[in-house]
Each structure stands twice: as C-alpha cells, then as structure tokens.
Protein: Cupin domain-containing protein
Organism: Paenibacillus anseongense
Amino acid sequence: MQRISEEDALFFGIETKFDLMENGERRFRLNCSVDGSSYCRTVAGERGAWQNSHYHKLASELYVVQLGWMVYAERKETEFHMCLLREGESVVFKPLIHHNIFLSSNSIIHTIKYGQSLENDWFPSSELDKMTKHLDPYDLYELS
C-alpha cells in the first residue's frame, strides 16, 4: 500500500479542513469539491450546545451518534419535530428539510453529506434557530 499525498488528493478535488467552532465543537472534515460530498467528525465541547439551523437545496445529510447523545430538530413546512438520538442511532435529512443539532458535552458524531450538491449548499434557517436555540435538550434527555 502506498500513501496518497495531500497534493495528489487535491488533484482529485479532495481536501481536509479542521475548525474550532464558536460553540466549542471541533470539526474534522474531508471535502470533495468535485461533487460537494463530505465527511465530518464532530467532537462536542465541554458544554453541550446547539449548532446553527440550516438546510440544503440538493444534498442529503446522514448523522450518526458515536458517543454521547444528540437532539435534532427539524421543520417541514409548518411541522416541527424534535428527537433524541443515542449512541449508534442515526438520522437522514433530505434536501430542503430545515434542521438543527444539539450535541451533549464531549459527544462525537459523524456527518456524511451526499447526493448532488452546489458549491456552497448550506443555507441558514433563522426561523428554526428562533424555535430551538433557547430550548434545553437536557430536559428532553431526562424525560426519555
């Protein structure tokens, strides 16, 4: 087996990107600029936190919980739904479904974006942010 260099990967449109988010999450991404698909390992911060509500016009996203738990909120037209996912559970968001994710402290999730995509297929959903950012998902976890 021979290792592929980062330069060779870039030739095929594959690049890595690592970010520390404002909410304390660490995101380790593998992006494919050719078709917009990506993989992201997210490690939550010391405190649980909401991400930013968004949707995609063409891509779908698969979220898998490896460690800890997450709560997701989704909005389909006028319908609002929240659900708790534990280790080993997953959810898929199809295009145009507005969604937001809360990660418990120190949790780890994997996100795979797939399908046709635009160069930047991430659109904010301020309306869903207003519905979720003030909620305390720890209450939901204790009730389940």
Q: What stands out?
A: The mean pLDDT is 92. The radius of gyration is 16 Å. The chain is about 15% helix and 45% strand.
